[in-house]
Specification:
The protein is of the alpha/beta class. The protein has two domains: 2-154, 3-Layer(aba) Sandwich (Rossmann fold); 176-335, Rossmann fold, CATH 3.40.50. Helices cover 44% and strands 13% of the residues. The strands form three sheets. A six-stranded parallel β-sheet has the order 9-8-7-10-11-12, sandwiched between helices. The chain has a four-stranded parallel β-sheet with strand order 3-4-5-6, sandwiched between helices. Strands 1-2 form a two-stranded parallel sheet. The chain is globular and about 60 Å long.
Amino acid sequence: MVAGPPAIASMVEQMGFRVAVCGEPPEDVVGPIRERLPTAPAAEASVLGNRELFGRLATAAMLPGLERIVAGWGPDLVVRDPCEYASAVIGHREHIAMAQVAIGLADVEWGSIEVASAALEVHRSGLTDEVRLTPYVTRFPASLDSSPFPDTRRYRETPGYPMPLPDWWDGSTAPLLYVSFGTVLGHMSMAATAYRVALAAVGELDARVLLTVGRRFDLDQLDAIPHNVHVEPWVNQPDVLAEADVVVCHGGSGTTFGALAAGVPLVIAPMFADQFANGAKVAASGAGVTLGSGAAGGRRRPLSWADGSPLAQAIETVRRDRSYRLAAHQIATEMASAPTIDELLMDLLAQ
């Protein structure tokens, strides 16, 4: 059973799992917080996201539904998103086996728990320490992700069978660039500018470009789309990564480490949240280039028109220098050496 807010219901059902819809904070409360995240100073943004949104508002909204699920369904193991604390409140209280699955770098998530602590301790004194001692399950490689969690377990996703992409480029065999700024950006007012900057940067390149914008973004906000660019709301990421030469993204963990697991080098333009930390790790590993937009000189700002030329130059650099792909392949080999998620979950259940 998968429990979460209403937005996940159709996706979970399509994957064949039972879904339990729980509550979520109202959009008129979440919206202003979301808009502040890319522009607020780092410490303030962390408090807004980790303590107010996840630790307080989302936890309170999820608790009633999860209480009913646990009481009526009796799970043997609860596998939780580290930013979803309602299940931790209930699971630790009821002595149910727990695991938390990483959605970001371990150091970042350890710090996020510290920021959320004031909201967590309202539910039960000592909950912060209980969460940190829970088995921490991550697909991220140790070379990029040293972990402070005392019980850290790494896994690999079971390889699927990617489907060929449709011929959206009329028979062109030019290199494929995949551009994605994730699903959250489409909810933000800065999304249109970010996508326009990206389109301007890739429009003159000798490449096929696939841009995904999420299901909430209105394509009418874009200017004319270059002839070499195809835009989709969403595509199956493994299908794209099987063919991509370079991934251009904002450094979200799903896209970043999905690309690295496939051995695809990256160009990262971080804008908010953990994207700066992810971008720094990728740049240090040699598996990609990270732009200075957003964090240069301690500033945080959205992608702007000043980033268009540096973005295009970074793409060309990563395409032409094979060292970036070789570094990405090395990380992919490390990630592939971990146990499968099925093996790891069976170990957790056995314990």
